[in-house]
């Protein structure tokens, strides 16, 4: 057994692939993931795998090549763009004499660096412990099995393993209980937003498409945004005022191809912002040469989390990276609407805001309404909405000049039995 190094920032990457040429997009994404984790890339090797080896995934010949490349480059970490079984990971570490991390472990490491909120940290730790639970056997000298009967050489063996497993399971149960409490609080906050009847819009998309930059541009917030994968993990929710009313906008974690299932499960509360939205803004890097493939991959993840049927508006961001590109709004006869903009420069944001108002039915109505003295509660609600432009009071009641979203006027009119707000509502034939 070897002593697992605590270092591991000089990485050798292995990109397995089936028959045919390697997928350059997958290799590029894996390289970006490694760099996002803070690794320096020593080399990238491809490994054709027609029949995966149960013990090491890759064949003995390729294994020798990887060992030679690691020795030559001085790599102290081997990253494999494939989900390894615990046995495969241990066998690779034993042969290569270096730490080995698969795709899931790499993404978990990035998540651990990026999580900022209490909930996010709990989710990351839970996912890490579940991933670690099957990897407690061998590879760590302090967990070495009992050796022969020589005095002074008897290790703690299985007793230590069982202790570690019990402590790990206890910690998992504690995290689950904490996350359940956090989920209750998040659900209560979400119900409050639902009661306010503000439309809910969620930003989704491939990681590094510019979601957080767009979120900041629309809300004036200061959510962290950077040119790297998984720059933000924790959901951020803000109210956005549009010309026809307000919406609740949520920024969510970015997706990647083959997002590990345990990560989807761990981040269920984060992803629920997308699952429970009225409209999804699917943000795409317009300058990405494989953007259509990215769109398909995000759609696949949305189906997996139960958000595949929610209406989408495609937002092609980063047009400032395309020479001659101009902001525009495409409304095809078939397929999804497309907005082309640059969140960084702010060009095209007006097109997106108008499209949002149109898609969410945010027409406005205005006029004078006469409220009797008995309608004090309705008057208070109109003031709370900021709908009152001017007000006069006399012995008959209040005379209000109003300007508010049609949806708000319809809701308040329904609650008040129509009168006196019915004077603001358009005739049925004028609604469309």
Annotation keywords:
432 residues, Rossmann fold, 7-stranded mixed beta sheet, 13 helices, elongated
**Mind summarizing the main beta sheet?**
7 strands, mixed
The assigned structural class equals: alpha/beta
What's the mean pLDDT score? 79
What is the annotated CATH architecture of the largest domain? Answer: 3-Layer(aba) Sandwich
Going by CATH, the homologous superfamily of the largest domain would be: P-loop containing nucleotide triphosphate hydrolases
Topology:
Elements (H helix, E strand, L loop, with lengths): L9 E8 L6 H13 L3 E9 L11 H14 L3 E4 L5 H11 L2 E4 H12 L3 H15 L24 H39 L4 E6 L5 H9 L16 E7 L2 E7 L9 H6 L1 H8 L3 E7 L5 H14 L7 E6 L10 E3 L7 E3 L8 H11 L4 E8 L4 H9 L3 E7 L2 E9 H10 L17
Parallel strand pairs: 1-2, 1-3, 3-4, 5-7, 5-8, 8-9, 9-11
Antiparallel strand pairs: 6-7, 10-11, 12-14, 13-14
Helix pairs in contact: 1-4, 4-5, 5-6
Short description:
40% of the residues lie in helices and 20% in strands. It is of the alpha/beta class and 432 residues long. It is found in: Cytoplasm.
Give a verbal description of the structure.
One of its GO terms (cellular component) is cytoplasm. It is a single chain. The N and C termini lie far apart (about 75 Å). This protein is elongated. It is built from 13 helices and 14 strands. The chain folds into 4 domains: about 10-110, Rossmann fold (3-Layer(aba) Sandwich); about 115-145 and about 155-195; about 200-360, Rossmann fold, CATH 3.40.50; about 365-430. It is of the alpha/beta class.
